Amino acid sequence: MSDRAPGSPDGPTLLLVEDDEGTRREVARNLAAHGYRVVEAATAAQALVAWERDRPDLLLVDLGLPDRDGISVVRRVRREGTTPILVVSARGDEQVKVGALEAGADDYVTKPFGSAELHARIRAVLRRAGGQAADPVGVIHNGTVSLDPLSHQVHVGDHSLALTPREFRILEVLLREPGRLVTRGRILRAVWGEAYQDQDHYIHVYVSQVRRKIAALDPDGLLRDLILAEPGVGYRVRAA
Amino acid sequence: MDPVRLRSTLRAAVIVGGLLLATTLLIAFLEGPMGVDNAAMTYLLAVIGSAALLGWTAAAVTAVGAFLIYDLLFIEPRFTLTVDDSREWLTLLLLLVVGMVVAWLTGALRERADTATAREREAHALYQVSRVLATRTDTRSALPELESILARETGSGRAWITVAPGAGKDKRAKDAVPVDGRIPFSQGALRRRADDGRPEWVRLHQSAMLRRADADTVAWRVPIEVSRRTIGSVWVERPRTDGEPDVAATQLLSAAADQMGQAIEQDRLLVEARDAEIVRQGDALKSALLDSVSHDLRTPLASIRAAAGTLLDPDMQLSVEDRIASATAIDREAENLARLVANLLDLSRIEGGALATDQEIYELDDLLERSLERLRHRLAGRPVTVSVPTDLPPARVDAVLFDQVLTNLLENAAKYAPPDAPIAVSAAMAGPMVRVSVEDGGPGVPRAALPHLFDKFYRVQQRGDGSRPGTGIGLAVVRGLTEAMGGSVSARRSDLGGLAVDIDLPVAPRLESEPMAMADLARV
Q1: Which residues on A lie below 8 Å from B511 (Cβ)?
Q2: How many CB pairs under 8 A join A and B?
Q3: For residues A31 and A58, what is the distance between their CA atoms, to the nearest angstrom?
Q4: What is the mean pLDDT of chain B?
Q5: Residue B397's pLDDT band (boundaries 50, 70, 90)?
Q6: Which of B518, B520, B523 to probe by mutation at the A interface, max A CB count within 10 Å?
Q7: Beta bridge partners of B386
Q8: B192: pLDDT strictly greater than 80
Q9: Positive or negative, the Cα torsion across B266, B267, B270, B271?
Q10: Which of A218, B55, B256, B419 has the fewest C-beta atoms under 10 angstroms from its C-beta?
């Protein structure tokens, strides 16, 4: 059962995959009222059919589906396309969230969520789908921070930021994907390589050091929310 | 006569004969070349010898033998039993009588010594059995050790113990097939005599299928009984030629079986008592849970229904502000419910042992800042201070659980302290741990309540000041989560006047500083 909800025909199309009918109807109504075209699906099978047929601009997938694991939907969609995927999961399932993100999901929201939070996430994921992090010469900008991967220079405003090699790599990995939730595993692979060393446990300490060094050059607190932690999952750099 | 007895009788005969022969030769030497008049009493040496070596029966036989040999060989006329000289009669008679007395005395002495040794050995063996049973955690796990003690002390090839699976329940022991698949082809069993209760061995007739002519061992079975029900058996396996276990071994086996029966019965009673206690505690928990949760569940539900009713009522002329107020109330109360459910789920995960932590190394000031940021709207307007020394080493925690711990503590402080009371969060080293403290300037709790604060469903008795009662869940979750992370939690009176909760967490070594050489990275 998948039917088109009323909505502006011009808005982005969302595929909402959720097995609980009450929740699905309510969320669909809310999204439609915000100008999205909403296609609903109650099972993984319906979701894949609807995805083939309607080619939505974004998938909103609940990970607890009756017929199949929601992650299998993520994998299938990711194998065939780059459509952004937002997964919905219960609190306390951090491992499941990490699994979905590593399988190719772009972000997650935790149930129960408020509609403001959901809209913010959807907007961020959609914006990112078209966004470009680096300028033509390859320098990455985010607010007053600029990072030049070639010269290994980081500037906060006019000040040069002194980072160790690992701190630099971590910041680079995060800044390259503004707004995207980067899992701990992805940071580890990018910075330490496949062969993790002892110090991989210190990834959070490295991130703390980066934040501290940036904060020291940011007396007005403009960059306080530059790097946000998602406990148990990973880190997110605010959208540029 | 069975071969075992025959063999030991032959052995005794050889010894007695040897002793008599040796003594006879000695007497012949004494009375011949040495010219001793009457050396008959030398035979007493042989009597004493056989008494010491073989016991009193053999000594008596030796005495009689000595009497006859002396008569035949040394008294005129030789080679007849006739005695000419009446004085020689006296010698012979004395030899017989003294020989018998010596035989009896020496034999009795030897038997007593033997009995004492056997008793001591049996007592020692039984002591070992008792010690194993006394230090056991449960009887079944002690069986292998008992088996080796019994095999050693009864001189058996091997010993094994079988206990019916539901021992103590009304089940008969199904232990006819012993361990490692070897079926003893011939069996003997220990029975209690009906009249005086003394144990005796009974040979069991095996079915023709099981009996095998070449079986060279016999399994002896001692039933383990609890109030006249057989719940298992002690088995010893001995070579067929060794015959049945001797008295000492039998007593040891019988006593060991009795002790094991008692131990198994104790186990059963213990398990029953524990099961009953678990059921009782479960019931108490359920009622405490219902009692404490029902209020916190009903309150937000009532608010939600009231607000939804307002929004649904077609007769009410609602301004936009009214609608927003109702929707906000629904949102806020739903959030309260979600938090309560989250805590309940945490509690059940803690109770069920299903809590897996994902501990990594974090700078605590970052974690504290994150949690406070997330809780900002709930702590709105409260003076919250955070102090963390800059040189505090990192801690090894699960960020999600730590956030939950801190959230519960801060909400607890916000719930019980008046809106303008200060809240202080601090971190410092405390011995080998790093300590996070959350303190408030509220009314605090009575000193007597401090040790119980983290007990499940424990609620401090408040004097009717209309404050919202707690569920007794939040702090129990704090303790459960902290302990899951290898930490500990304690409560004290704060210098701010209210409650202070200290969370001690495992510390991680400081990160070695990395060289700043950016040139190393020129590969990117």
Answers
A1: 199, 202, 205-206
A2: 75
A3: 12
A4: 81
A5: very high
A6: B518
A7: B425
A8: no
A9: negative
A10: B419
